[in-house]
Amino acid sequence: MSDIIQLLPDHVANQIAAGEVVQRPASVVKELMENAIDANATEIKLIIKDAGKTLVQVIDNGKGMSVTDARLSFERHATSKIRAAEDLFQLNTKGFRGEALASIAAIAHVELKTKQDEDDLGTAIVIEGSEVKSQEVVVTPTGTSVAVKHLFFNIPARRNFLKSDTVELRHISDEFHRVALAHPNIAFSFYHNGSDLFNVPQENYRQRVVHIFGTKTNEKLVPVEEETEVLKISGFVGKPNFSKKTKSEQFFFVNQRFIKSPYLNHAIKSAFEGLLKDGYHPSYFLNLTVDPKSIDINIHPTKTEIKFDDEHTLYAILRSAVKHSLGQFNIAPVLDFEHQSSLNTPYEYKDKNASIPAIEVDRSFNPFSEDVNRKEKTTRQNTGFKSPPTASWESMYVGLESKGNNSQSDFSQVTFESESKDESIFNDSAIETRKTTFQLQHKYIVSTLKSGMLIIDQNRAHQRILYESFLKHITVKEATSQQLLFPLQLHFTPNETKIIDDLKSDLEHTGFAFSELNDKEIMITGVPVGVPESEVSIILEQLISDVENDVPDTNFSAADLLAKSMAKSLAIKNGQSLNSTEQEHMVNSLFACKEPNVSPTNRPTFITMAVDDIEKKFM
């Protein structure tokens, strides 16, 4: 039998490696920005076109590369970060595998320009699909510029798997946020299709968080500081009343590297135990500094997951530090049953002696005395107030004798308030017998059929009713809006505001009215009829959550997504009591829908039980 195992060509091996390193344009952004940080850059510029499908360019003012290094950087497993296997456990840099540029060059057109400070001229290299097209000397500023064009040009199947520009741009923004938050000492700028999305200078960590997530974020932050032999913690957590339905504001950085850790996330949630509403998540921006020897960051291709030597200790320290900060800044309630804060002495009276109150008793006072000219005595000498004169008690009966003669005529005009008769008190049994629907466990509506019994899930049924109603309003564009007496002011992050801006026209067709919508605030002057003002922020948060979780790709359109999201937010929840009229209206409205069988998420809204099936239960 002939040999069947053979070595893969380099360009094929690079494409396979690219499948691990480069999954979407955001992966290219992450690798190039981390290379710029490793080059000790103080200013990094990110330029994107068509959500990275056409161009991803990163320009930095770092130390640059020599001619040899520039050519060698595109070879596989070529790196300046490590020399031996032991170096993997003492890493203080971002990229170290030496596969990033080689993998990117295998599936895109790459143009590299670089120059070191001591050199007069720089180097320009053009590579297409791992093939070097040109290398020449150019005039370029100190630092490095890498432009990646036409991503996945030679792998059409991978390009077809890319999402819409909105989704891909959101992933790029997420990567930009992660890198920018981890390095507040570096100035970053971000441009998309010629427009300026972010421009943050060198600043402290609090200013960096506020710059990225909006000025309103400043009042939400609670500082967390803790330093032990094992772990150093610095950063901020969000106040519980500003928690969100999404996990978009949860950031862990270990040695300035963004990571995802469900275990450490649980430590934060346990510190917030009892302070968050169901379905809401805490916000946190925490920097953890540990010994590089105690972690292994080479267990995941994208390096977003790392392994700790002693996770249990880190869990306990992190939980205690967050809990201490919440208590220190009076965010968490104080559990001291012997202390009553209302009895605390104010600071301005702390060192003052209490004065003895003066009490004077008028022993000659007689409330039945007729001496109206008696001088009034004050009860307190330290006040200038006098008690009002006391009238004689006989004055209460003045005029009653004259009215006594007309008592008959007066009483003849007195009318008594008649008590309304409540028929339901006497006809309770009659009403119960006429009821055609019943509510079971405040969750299901039970009704009778000719063939048996109908059981409806009230939450799913109401979702279906609202979904078709909203979808009709958006399609016909004839929704009515109720104007608010005072405009409702809401604050979201720039990314969340962009999502709402993209859906603004569809939101207006459902009944929303916007007077202002920018990166700083959203002013709402009208809401759909029947939507409480208190529910508006919940509806928009749910909508943002659905969009951020890639829900648009599973829907027919943005209008369909919006209708589903609003129906989910406004539908009657399980556990809500409904009277008989509301129950019957729910049943009639459900079966007036085009598709009453399923909810907007394709789950059954009702089940039926035939009489035969019920009879079998008694056999």
TrEMBL record:
Q: What's one Pfam family the UniProt record gives for this protein?
A: DNA_mis_repair
Its keywords, alphabetically, are:
DNA damage, DNA repair
Concerning InterPro entries, the annotation shows: DNA_mismatch_repair_CS (IPR014762), DNA_mismatch_repair_MutL (IPR020667), DNA_mismatch_S5_2-like (IPR013507), HATPase_C_sf (IPR036890), MutL/Mlh/PMS (IPR002099), MutL/Mlh/Pms-like (IPR038973), MutL_C (IPR014790), MutL_C_dimsub (IPR042120)
Question: Where does the record place the DNA mismatch repair protein S5 domain?
Answer: 209-327
Could you state one GO biological process linked to this protein?
mismatch repair
Tell me where in this chain the MutL C-terminal dimerisation domain is found: 436-578
Gene Ontology molecular-function annotations: ATP binding; ATP hydrolysis activity; ATP-dependent DNA damage sensor activity; mismatched DNA binding
Q: Which family does it belong to?
A: Belongs to the DNA mismatch repair MutL/HexB family.
Q: What does this protein do?
A: This protein is involved in the repair of mismatches in DNA. It is required for dam-dependent methyl-directed DNA mismatch repair. May act as a 'molecular matchmaker', a protein that promotes the formation of a stable complex between two or more DNA-binding proteins in an ATP-dependent manner without itself being part of a final effector complex.
Q: What is this protein called?
A: DNA mismatch repair protein MutL
Organism this protein belongs to: Winogradskyella eximia
